[in-house]
Design a protein that fits this description.
InterPro entries: CAP_dom, CAP_sf
Largest sheet: 7 strands, mixed
Region (Disordered): 147-187
Helix content: 10-25%
Protein name: CAP domain-containing protein
CATH architecture of the largest domain: 3-Layer(aba) Sandwich
Number of domains: 5
Pfam families: CAP (PF00188)
Domain SCP: 215-336
Length: 550
């Protein structure tokens, strides 16, 4: 490379093949090296991993030559497996070998009309990587450019180079890895299409916890890269769930949509049914991985999928997961997007829950000319207008349940709003440590009340703040004493003040109410305790355990 002439040979774009010779002996210069370069007419090679002899991972990179732009479609296969579907030609893509150690061959066919050329390359798989044997990732890292499409009819045939996402002139784009593996039926699977055609179907979550974990893991990776969090979008969730379920039930693995083995619509069309936008959109898919952590590791180890996860143009995300008995069994989809004119607010990097009211916010804005904002909790009064900040700290209304934070951002007289929710698992004030019901038994023959009384201690179970309370019975035959107190030191005693004369079951309630004037209101106040008195002629057994139901 230090010689300009030799360097020119090595970097000559006209060459497609190379041969190397080396000999060492006792004479003259001892070691002799030769590089021979060439290009054969009509031969357009496929190269695996830069022509390295071996790999420790079944995930490899391919480079395909073609004669000219008129060769517009290709298909591939592993070893002697069935061919993939015909897809738009791309020179660079990721590929997944069969997972058994040993020599593997990847074969490509490139076609123009009825003319087809075939080429292959081999590589030795030393050992599969430490991912599940059934794990597979869609070939990654390419971007579709729909700039040549007529309005409403995006073309399927123009694919950009790997790792170079772009936004088309008409404003629509898909980022990621649209090239597909075989849409044919997976082994042992008869196809019974769940969905027909390319219409919107809102599929409910099969495992909402798995989907939420993927969202949180995505935002963790974005935080490591210094990127803002994505807000979860229910329409993108529906789009992702539809595709995960459809791939399983129709027995294919592709970004495009199929009814069985029949092509229905491409990624762009499917996403448009759920998430029409003039902004950015993208998708990652995977199959075979059994947990959110495993599939995220697989995606982050693939440059194209990682680029989607860390794409700064996205502001929203949807996740779909479906598990069944066929094919790869576990199917995962991430759909990304950004809507023109919509700039989200995200609480705690889109975590599902928090046990503290102190949270962090991320607020998107269109540009620096949007200079002011104001915030509010739930449906409470707006805070004052203040200088805009992307990352303010905030305190939720400390009340257990779904909490909402809303923001308004303004430029002059123009105002845009956004909101997000999070589940707060604690409250500032909670009346607790009280049973749901109590039971007394009175043995008339023995003149004995079992138990003689109950002593209860109301508490603020959220924190140590003292709360004043009152307690009263709905009927006069039951005594409550004392009738008021303060947490946590005070207790009160419940006992029958008088015993009804005849056998039977007598019921009433005790109501405990916090009287402290606090904001927000106390959770579980007033509390009602159901009290039953069972009067019997005589007990059959002398042993009785007091009954308190909490």
């Amino acid at each position: 490379m230090g010689s300009s002439g030799h360097r020119a040979n090595i970097l000559n774009p006209a060459f497609r093949e190379i041969g190397i010779g080396f000999f060492t002996g006792p004479n003259a210069h001892h070691s002799y090296w030769v590089q021979d370069f060439g290009t054969r007419g009509g031969v357009y090679p496929l190269v695996i991993n830069g022509d390295t002899p071996s790999t420790a991972s079944p995930q490899v990179n391919l480079y395909l030559y073609r004669e000219n732009e008129s060769w517009d479609e290709m298909r591939l296969r592993n070893d002697d497996d069935p061919w993939s579907a015909w897809v738009p030609f791309t020179p660079t893509l990721s590929w997944v070998l069969n997972s058994q150690p040993g020599e593997h061959r990847v074969t490509a066919e490139v076609r123009r009309g009825r003319s087809v050329r075939q080429v292959s390359d081999t590589i030795h798989l030393i050992a599969p990587e430490s991912l599940p044997a059934s794990g597979e990732i869609q070939p990654a890292g390419m971007s579709l450019d729909y700039s040549t499409a007529s309005p409403g009819e995006p073309a399927r045939g123009v694919v950009a180079s790997a790792g170079s996402p772009q936004k088309a002139e008409d404003g629509e784009s898909i980022l990621g890895d649209p090239t597909s593996t075989p849409p044919s039926t997976l082994s042992g699977k008869d196809t019974f299409p769940l969905f027909t055609g390319c219409t919107r179907v809102n599929v409910t979550a099969q495992n909402a916890a798995y989907e939420q974990q993927v969202v949180e893991l995505v935002n963790q990776e974005r935080a490591k890269a210094g990127l803002p969090p994505l807000r979860r979008n229910p329409d993108l969730d529906y789009a992702a769930r539809y595709h995960a379920r459809d791939m399983h039930d129709d027995g294919y693995f592709s970004h495009d949509t199929y009814d069985g083995s029949v092509f229905v619509c491409d990624t762009w069309q499917r996403l448009s049914n759920y998430y029409p936008t003039t902004g950015w959109r993208g998708e990652n898919i995977a199959a075979g991985y059994t947990t959110p952590g495993e599939v995220m590791t697989g995606w982050m180890n693939s440059s194209g999928h990682k680029a989607n996860i860390l794409n700064s143009n996205y502001r929203e995300i949807g996740v779909g997961y479906y598990s069944g008995s066929s094919g790869y069994r576990h199917y995962w989809v991430q759909d990304f997007g950004s809507r023109s004119g919509f700039y989200p607010l995200v609480i705690n990097r889109e975590a599902a829950t928090t046990d503290t009211p102190q949270v962090s916010l991320y607020i998107y804005r269109e540009d620096s000319t949007w200079t002011e904002m104001r915030l509010r909790n739930d449906d409470l009064t707006w805070g004052p207008w203040q200088p805009f900040s992307n990352t303010p700290n905030w305190t939720l209304q400390w009340l257990k349940g779904t909490r909402t934070v809303s923001v308004e951002v303004r430029k002059g007289t123009t105002v845009r709003s956004a909101s997000d929710t999070i589940e707060l698992t604690t409250s500032q004030y909670t009346l607790g440590n009280l049973p749901d019901s109590l039971l007394f038994i009175y043995d008339q023959a023995a003149g004995r009340l079992i138990p003689p009384s109950y002593t209860l201690q109301p508490l603020n179970t959220s924190n140590s703040v003292s709360l004043s309370w009152t307690a009263s019975a709905a009927d006069s035959w039951l005594s409550v004493s004392p009738s008021d107190g303060i947490t946590p030191s005070s207790t009160f005693v419940i006992t029958p003040a008088s015993i009804p004369s005849g056998p039977g079951v007598y019921s009433t309630t005790v109501t405990v109410t916090v009287t402290s004037l606090v904001d927000p209101p106390v959770v579980s106040s007033p509390a009602q305790i159901r009290v039953q008195l069972s009067v019997v002629n005589a007990l059959d057994h002398v042993l009785y355990l007091s009954f308190i139901q909490r």
